[in-house]
Amino acid sequence: MNRKAAEAALAAYVGNCGPGEAKEPEHWQASDLVTDLLMLFDADTARKILRRVEGDLTAEQPDVTPVLPAAI
Q: Cβ neighbours of residue 41 under 8 Å, at least 6 residues apart?
């Protein structure tokens, strides 16, 4: 998935959740989306996904240009 598709997925998620979600900071919205995605899997698989994501994010850090403001 590329950044544009990820932005579209987050916007669709927020749009489907309603006005309460839309009022939250973007990093909370993203966290809620990721949490809901992880809840589709059993706990062991969710942990494996998180470990892989952490590794991927660490590996890509030098190339990352933030789109959203930093979390507080």
A: 49
Q: Which residue has the tokens 């809840």?
A: 39
Handedness of CA 3, 68, 57, 21 (dihedral sign): negative
pTM of the model: 0.74
Tell the residue number behind the tokens 């706990």, with chain if given.
43
Give tens-digit pLDDT for 7-21.
999 999 999 998 999
What would the 3-class secondary structure string for 15-53 be? Answer: HHHCHHHHCCCHHHHHHHHHHHHHCCCCHHHHHHHHHHH
Torsion of CA 25, 30, 32, 35, to 10 degrees: -150
pLDDT, residue 3, reads 83
Asked if 46 and 40 count as a contact pair (C-beta separation under 8 A), the reply is no
